[in-house]
Amino acid sequence: MSIITSFTRMWLTRTVQPFRFKNEYDRILPYEECDNLGLYVHIPFCKSICNFCPYCKVLYSKEVCDRYIDSLIDEIHLIGRTNPGRKKATSLYFGGGTPALAAERIKDIIDAVNEHFIITEGVGLELHPDNVNEDTLSVLKEAGVTKISIGIQSFSDKYQKVLGRKKIDTSALASALKAVDFETVSMDFIFALPGQTFDDLKTDIDTAFSLGANHVAIYPFIDFTFTESYVEPMPKKEKRRLLDDITNYCLGKGYSRSSIWTFSSDPEAKYSSMTRDNFLGFGCSATSLFKEQFKINTFDVDSYCKRIHSGEPATSLTVRFTKRQRMIYWLFWTAYSTRVRAADFEKFFGRDLKKMYGFEIFIAKKLGFITERDGVYEMTLKGAFYYHYYENFYTLAYIDKMWGIMRNEAFPEHIEL
């Protein structure tokens, strides 16, 4: 796995130099110079810990949660005050954890963000199915949330048990969504679970849209080494067949595809915190991506609060990109949307895409991974699967290693990937 990702990295960046993350931070973050900037806020608290979930999370305590959110608001002001005026940002997304456990404090956080930023495309927030009730949704909507994403994973009792989740009350879910409307209601599902069939996944998607969703996200199961999941990954051939079949089904229904994993019944319904040229993150484990660097905050709640209380950023690690490293990062995550526009690449880097990666584009076309029309490269079904296939390698070689270390060390000295 690491051999594949290492070779790919060296080939595409034209250097043997790895991604070097160092324990250093900058008091002034260079987001003012960034266009297409997204914002992200991490709230790591959960009522119970799902054994398959790799994200930064801790068991909920109201006292600790309130202290954390006070620190989070301080971080927003600490970073926001370093730049004059209010910076335009495309969106604000809340992830976790279970952000709705702090529903009564979401408005405080959004108000703090609005002091320093102008949000142009709305505010999104992740929800556990248990939190989808009329009272909670009303509080969130009044706070300024315009999009929600509900972590269903599966409506099937069989797979809820496999994932350690309880049965979902679909009638209560539908009633709450009907009572309080949002511009985007997304539901998340996991695919490639053991024995999962096309009919299983089709039923989940049909159920989601019938209950009030206008957007679905179908994420592959990835077996992180540091989780306590006992779920066996699906074999490659079965996974490809399942992804192709469900993609063809959704496209056949007339749903819009906005990324590898997402489909919507309304073309205007969008939910993605990932497809941004640059982003700025607040809270434990939150990441920030700028034109020449990538940063990640500490995963440890106490260390995070202490660092912010001292008046310093909570950055744990920073990598400063070479030009080619940044290009590959941009291409990888832009391709997540299933298409790359050569004009966007040239606008961001001031370089012609074909001059930088003409050979790789030629090979991708010959292999049937992409098509080209008017300077837009679009993934085929085959290309989408192999993007996922490589992303799985990337996740286990890079993200798994980094998160595994950071779960145990608040501020590691360095990590090389």
What does this protein structure show overall?
The strands form six sheets. Strands 12-13-11-10-9-8-6-2-14 form a nine-stranded mixed β-sheet. It has a three-stranded antiparallel β-sheet with strand order 15-16-17, with no helix packed on it. The protein has helices spanning 2-13, 62-80, 103-116, 134-143, 157-162, 170-179, 198-211, 236-252, 301-309, 323-334, 342-349, 353-366, 381-406; strands spanning 20-22, 37-43, 45-46, 58-59, 87-89, 91-96, 117-119, 123-127, 147-153, 184-191, 215-220, 256-257, 262-264, 278-282, 287-289, 293-297, 315-320, 339-341, 370-373, 376-379, 414-416. With 417 residues, it is of the alpha/beta class. The two termini are 12 Å apart. It has 13 helices and 21 strands. Helix 2 (62-80) runs parallel beside helix 3 and helix 2 crosses helix 9 (301-309). The model has no long low-confidence stretch (mean pLDDT 93). The longest helix has 26 residues, at 381-406.
Strand residue content: 15-25%
* Alpha-carbon Rg, integer: 21 Å
Summed over residues and divided by their number, the pLDDT gives a mean of 93
Shape: globular
Strand order of the largest sheet: 12-13-11-10-9-8-6-2-14
Q: What distance separates the N and C termini?
A: 12 Å
Which range best describes the helical content: under 10%, 10-25%, 25-40%, 40-55%, 55-70% or over 70%? 40-55%
Poorly predicted ranges: none
Number of strands: 21
Helical region count?
A: 13
Largest sheet: 9 strands, mixed
Classify the secondary structure makeup into a structural class: alpha/beta
